[in-house]
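lol ok so funny story. i was supposed to be doing the assay writeup but got distracted and ended up predicting the structure for this chain instead. priorities right. anyway since i did it might as well share w the group, maybe its usefull for someone
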Amino acid sequence: MIERNAIICSAYFETERGLSAWLVLDFGGGQKQGFGGYSLYPPQNKGNYAGHFIWRVFQIAEVNDWCALVGKPARVRIGDLHIVSIGHIIKDDWFDPAKEFEEIRLNSKIQN
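and the output, tada:
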């Protein structure tokens, strides 16, 4: 095993095989390599709040890269001075984290 210094030159989430995270590291001299790609959230296994949040935001905005969210339109539902859910700009698809996280919590109790 060797150790090398590197600079993180980009970081992103992608949804090709479920939710994965990647870092691209620059070793200098034109040498770059990716680190990551582990499945952090397979959408059929909804036991991870962070993964579910990121996955649902991607679905609402119809993107598969966190950086691609900037500039995307969305609808919002506002409760007591804060946004309680975001929705797809055209489709009837809403992400209400409090509601969906509670469903995940209840389903995980049922399965255990």
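DSSP finds two helices and six strands in the chain. The chain has one domain: 7-111.
back to the writeup now i swear
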